[in-house]
Amino acid sequence: MKQLHFNFKDIFRSARLAFSIQRIWLNGLGLLAGYLLYLVISYISLLVGGYNFSAIWSKFGLLPCAFAMTVPWYSILLYILGLLVFLAVILLTNTAVSRVVYMTLRDELFYTWSQALKFAWKKWISSLGAMLTFLFIIAFFVIGGLVMAFIGRIPFVGEIGTVLFTIPYIFAALLLFFICLSFGVALFFVPAILATSDEDALGGVFQSFSITFNQPWRILVYLFLLGVIYVLGVFLFAVVMKISYYIFMTLFSLGMGDKITQVQQQALHLLDKALPAVYTWAHTLPGSLGGWIYLNNPHPIVADMPFSIILSGYIFGIFLLFLAGVVLAYGEAIVNAGLTIIYVILYKLQEKESLLEREDEELKEEEEEEKKEEEKPPV
Questions:
Q1: What is the pLDDT of residue 41?
Q2: What is the largest distance, in Å, between two alpha-carbon atoms of the chain?
Q3: How far is 150 from 189, CA to CA, in rounded Å?
Q4: Using the 8-state DSSP alphabet, how is residue 266 labeled?
Q5: Rounded CA separation 249/222 (Å)
Q6: pTM surpassing 0.90?
Q7: pLDDT at residue 287, as a whole number
Q8: Helix (H, G, I), strand (E, B) or coil at 198
Q9: Which of 7, 121, 161, 347 is most enclosed, with most CB atoms within 10 A?
Q10: Mean pLDDT by 10 residues, the chain (379 residues)
Q11: ∠ CA 273-274-277 to the nearest 5 degrees?
Q12: Residue 116 to residue 97: CA distance in whole angstroms
């Protein structure tokens, strides 16, 4: 079992714990699956909204957004569905990664990514159920408030009744505000709660309320610290990847000459068309900062290139997108590792019990199965 300080010092382990093929692979798998579902649903929403494929591609490329277009209401609903599907997949993946990080903290180093996905799949109803529970509670308060507001329209009785119940209404609004804060906390912490304490949906809701009420300042400070580690970690990883790319291009330019440069030009032109939003975002960063993490210069296509160069350029462009996905996956792994550590700290400080020393049901079941296998008589 890892020796933790159970304070802010442990959060600095996040970047190191995240730097693992297993964790980056799991997060990358979830990002890819969620993104592909989002991409398909988003394009469908814009297509049914009256736009053709070429117009959508020229404006958005691989990052479509229905909110940036004038579309009918059903297109907006379909696009929101795509966002919700993406978030559901990310929630499932985050549970798996938090489970792997938790097992690593327990020194269960042979816990596999397939076991983590199996655990997350078993918990998907609980993770989504926790979110739906919060939404149901919030909706109950909002609808109740609107009903009482409409009752206030009744002449004489309405305004007098509203004034008399002002104090209860304000305290109800305060409670709704706290529930919304807890929901925001749950969006971050529910995967870590399920992965470390093996709670169900109601347990995830209760623990979210508990840490929000009892340790709000620790949550704010720890999340701020994790945010700094995330930004620095992703930026440094992106810089290292770009330096590695330059080394690769320099060495192969010496050997292949103009061929590799033409392939690169074709690939980068493809990325300009596929990621216009990222290109714009990179130029909004101060100074030349965008150039350190993204190839943010325009790349016009070179005419009269042979088919082999064009084909190679497309393949090269796909590989560059893959490398960008690795950087994003590492960033998400940092967040998951950090949130898992933070919840272990918060639980220890609140309950005076270490989750790393608690008996784990999954490990217990595996041990029992192993004992049964050992006790079987030889055939």
A1: 95
A2: 88
A3: 37
A4: H
A5: 40
A6: no
A7: 61
A8: coil
A9: 347
A10: 81 92 93 95 92 88 88 92 94 94 88 88 89 93 90 82 86 94 94 89 91 93 96 92 90 86 85 77 64 61 78 90 92 95 93 84 68 61
A11: 90
A12: 7
For tokens 């700290």, the residue is 345
pLDDT at 255: 84
3-state SS string over 91-128?
A: HHHHHHHHHHHHHHHCCCCCCCHHHHHHHHHHCHHHHH
Contact 47, 73 (CB under 8 A): no
Please check whether residue 226 is in contact with residue 11, taking contact to mean a CB–CB distance below 8 angstroms: yes
pLDDT, position 183: 94
Phi, psi of 348 (to 5 degrees): -65, -45
**CA angle (210, 212, 213) in 5-degree steps:** 70
**Nearest residue to 264 (alpha-carbon basis) of 298, 207, 202, 314:** 314
3-state secondary structure the chain: CCCCCCCHHHHHHHHHHHCCHHHHHHHHHHHHHHHHHHHHHHHHHHHHCCCCHHHHHHHHCCCCCHHHCCCCHHHHHHHHHHHHHHHHHHHHHHHHHHHHHHHHHCCCCCCCHHHHHHHHHHCHHHHHHHHHHHHHHHHHHHHHHHHHHHHCCCCCHHHHHHHHCHHHHHHHHHHHHHHHHHHHHHHHHHHHHHHHHCCCHHHHHHHHHHHHHHCHHHHHHHHHHHHHHHHHHHHHHHHHHHHHHHHHHHHHHHHHCHHHHHHHHHHHHHHHHHCHHHHHHHHHCCCCHHHHHCCCCCCCCCCCCCHHHHHHHHHHHHHHHHHHHHHHHHHHHHHHHHHHHHHHHHHHHHHCCCCCCCCCHHHHHHHHHHHHHHHCCCC
Length of the chain: 379
Sequence-distant (6+) residues with CB within 8 A of 271 are 295, 299, 317, 320, 321
